[in-house]
Write a sequence for this structure.
């Protein structure tokens, strides 16, 4: 970064019943090599002692401000509230169960400084289980470059569920956030991706090709709720159609709607199989009903059966392997 002013970064941590994980999250911000930041923690009516813990552990640090909501706002309503308390020209959302590498802010701010047209920036991340074992390393969305024009990423979104990343991976300009009106709280699923795509209508995106964020995979993680995915898959698909039909790059491209239609269908039957394997017949039947109305039975049934057969075969192979 150049010797001109180091901009203030507002780190936003939405808190809800993560007393057992939030210290790791906040400590990772305190340990950043980039020091010009403020930390806004907004608790959404936790009942596990989170607020008392936060005040006891961090109340003496003037860089950390702790707020408590009077009523539940939900994940993105809480984030939007916390952003309203912040003042920095850069916004970094960090979910309370995730944490950052010490160089996260330094590396991403350097990229913003090098590319003024970048409105948001993502990084590589690792995912850990509840037993602190590495589950996977996520390299999307970068393709080994540190800068991409918005049209390239928007094209990728028709082929991947979320090629940009979740909030803990991204940092973005306040200007980019405000000029698109912030989060659309009327969208219950894919709320973050909706914001990223609307930002990309005006800004390019940068990627730091390093592992700079870490995510937790656990039973209380909202993104693991297949019931929630079943209820809001249609919302996600409608979001894609609305945004792509409006965007200048996609107007008149008939294949965009087809790509989104395929995306929705693929997600429906993958989620249906997960419900079936997990023993959730109501959610499975609901998804089958949706699929039947959208696509003729003769088209989706063979794919569903083929996928189900693969899942069953994998379970058989695993059992045989453990016997030996």
């Amino acid at each position: 970064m150049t010797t001109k002013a180091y901009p203030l970064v507002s780190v936003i941590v939405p808190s809800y019943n993560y007393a057992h994980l939030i210290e790791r999250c906040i400590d990772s911000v305190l340990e950043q090599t980039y020091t010009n930041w403020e930390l806004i923690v907004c608790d959404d009516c936790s009942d596990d002692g989170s607020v008392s813990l936060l005040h006891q552990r961090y109340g003496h640090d003037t860089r950390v401000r702790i707020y408590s909501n009077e009523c539940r706002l939900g994940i993105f309503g809480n984030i939007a509230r916390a952003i309203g308390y912040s003042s920095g020209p850069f916004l970094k959302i960090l979910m309370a169960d995730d944490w950052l590498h010490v160089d996260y802010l330094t590396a991403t701010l350097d990229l913003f400084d090098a590319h003024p047209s970048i409105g948001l920036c993502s990084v590589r991340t690792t995912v850990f289980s509840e037993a602190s074992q590495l589950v996977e390393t996520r390299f999307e969305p970068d393709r080994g470059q540190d800068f991409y024009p918005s049209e390239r990423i928007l094209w990728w979104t028709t082929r991947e569920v979320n090629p940009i990343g979740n909030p803990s991976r991204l940092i973005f300009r306040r200007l980019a956030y405000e000029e698109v009106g912030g989060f659309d709280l009327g969208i219950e699923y894919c709320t973050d991706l909706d914001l990223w795509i609307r930002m990309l209508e005006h800004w390019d995106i940068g990627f730091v090709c390093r592992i700079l964020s870490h995510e937790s995979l656990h039973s209380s993680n909202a993104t693991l709720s297949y019931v929630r995915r079943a209820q809001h898959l249609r919302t996600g698909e409608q979001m894609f159609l609305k945004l792509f039909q409006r965007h200048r790059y996609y107007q008149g491209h008939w294949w965009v709607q087809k790509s989104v239609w395929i995306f929705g269908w693929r997600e429906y039957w993958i989620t249906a199989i997960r419900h079936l394997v997990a023993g959730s017949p109501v959610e499975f039947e609901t998804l089958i009903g949706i699929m039947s109305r959208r696509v003729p039975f003769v088209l989706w049934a063979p794919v569903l059966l083929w996928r189900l057969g693969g899942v069953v075969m994998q379970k058989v192979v695993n059992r045989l392997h453990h016997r030996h």
